[in-house]
Amino acid sequence: MKIQVLGSGCTTCKNLHKSVEDVVKKLKLDIEVEYSTDIAKIVELGAMSSPVFAINGILISAGKVPSNDEIEKAISGNI
Amino acid sequence: MEIITKTMDIFYPLEALANWLTFSVFSIEQNTYLASAVQFFIYDTLKIFALMLVITHFMSAVRYYLPIEKLRDFLTKRKLYGLDYFFATVFGAITPFCSCSSIPLFIGFLEARIPLGITFAFMITSPLINEVAIALFISIFGWHVTLLYIVAGLSIGMIGGFILGKLKMEKYVEDFVWKVHVQKHNQTEKKKESFGKIFPQISREAFDIIRKIALYIVIGVGVGAIIHGYVPEGFFEKYLDSAGIWGVPLATVLAVPIYANASGVIPIIQSLVVKGVPLGTALAFMMAVVGLSLPEALILKKVLKWQLLATFFGVVTFGIILIGYAFNYLL
């Protein structure tokens, strides 16, 4: 599974990165969360707001930090 | 000036509460500077947060049903016969502005083959009009000025976007922007759900927004309250009279290096207006603070060459100055 957090480097993006990492740790998964500030990648995923949270190249959320429960649901739904 | 100080009846209970807290609970003597500042602070804070609660919920609901991706598709798929500028500014007004999103949005619009001018119309209006600014405007200046402000913000966006579009400046957009291609338009799936299920999500988003700006508002109203209570009436007139007709452009230019949240600036602006700063001059200052900022310019520099960036700022500055004069003349 490939988990990505894409952002422009703003605080909201960093918060999302941290939330996703926390959830991954909580679920005891051995997956690295990719964090990138390449804006072209955001647009290529079809999103127009940042930060972006994507699993296996599929957009889960854009422009907001979902709650930890929502992140957990999205990740466990893709295992 | 009457419009500004006029309070609306629906807020009467809040005013009564503020009076009761100031004069009975804190037992501050009436007609003192302190009483005036404290009463102003309590009343304004209550009023702003009450309105903010309603408006942020409403706007979060609008955004849930009309995400930015849908707005983009609307602008690309339909022939709008010149109304595109109008729609782009209205969409800019309903989307929240966050500098984190300005670049992906810009690229996303251009990638969808939306013309540069229309993209700019959106980007000019987005920071100027948003739910937070509207809630603050209604509670502080009343409905009349709020409506005028919205019309002004939309006009700057439409006219600015139109001019930028006519200048044919596509070559001054960084080359990599034109090479970005969306691989798949996979939208986050949205199942049809009952409003009861969606509401908690909308509400959470609304409270997120309020939480983010609450401190700025309290500080802004606090500074405003101090000015309100302690600065003598007509204080600024003395200084601004010497600036004369140059007041509006001066206020606009002075605002550029200041990067602040509209939520903190608007309450301060109101106190300045009460103490003699002309409304148009004050609004020009506020619009320049939120619409023209150096950090925003640095972010946009990633996608715009300096010629276009400078033209963009120039056009918006000019628009803000015009609106400032219009407000001073009309009100």
Which features characterize this protein?
heterodimer; A: alpha+beta; 3 helices; globular; B: 331 residues; disordered N terminus
3D architecture notes:
The complex is a heterodimer of chains A (79) and B (331). Chain A is 39% helix and 22% strand. With 79 residues, chain A is of the alpha+beta class. A 4-stranded mixed β-sheet of chain A has the order 2-1-3-4. Chain A is globular, with a radius of gyration of 11 Å. The relative contact order of chain A is 0.27. The mean pLDDT of chain A is 85. By secondary structure, chain B is mainly α. The longest helix of chain B is centred in the middle third of the chain and has 36 residues, at 195-230. Classes of the chains: A alpha+beta (79), B mainly alpha (331). Chain A binds chain B through residues 7-8, 10, 12-13, 39-40, 42-51, 58-64, 67, and chain B through 68-69, 72, 98-101, 103-105, 107-109, 111, 176, 180-188, 204-205, 208, 299, 302.
The Rg value of chain B, from CA coordinates, equals 21 Å
- What percent of residues of chain B are in strands? under 5%
Unreliable runs of chain B: 1-7
Structure annotation, total helices of chain A: 3
Strand order of the largest sheet of chain A: 2-1-3-4
In total, the number of strands of chain A is 4
Written as H for each helix and E for each strand, in order along the chain, the element string of chain B is HHHHHHHHHHHHHHHHH
**Strand residue percentage of chain A:** 15-25%
Number of strands of chain B: 0
The outline of chain B comes out as: globular
Largest interface: A-B, 25 and 29 residues
Q: Please tell me the overall pLDDT of chain B.
A: 82
Low-confidence stretches of chain A: none
Q: Globular, elongated, flat, extended or rod-shaped: what is the shape of chain A?
A: globular
Indicate the structural class of chain A: alpha+beta
Mean pLDDT of chain A: 85
Radius of gyration of chain A: 11 Å
- Helix % of chain B is over 70%
Largest sheet of chain A: 4 strands, mixed
Give me the oligomer status.
Answer: heterodimer
Number of contiguous helices of chain B:
17
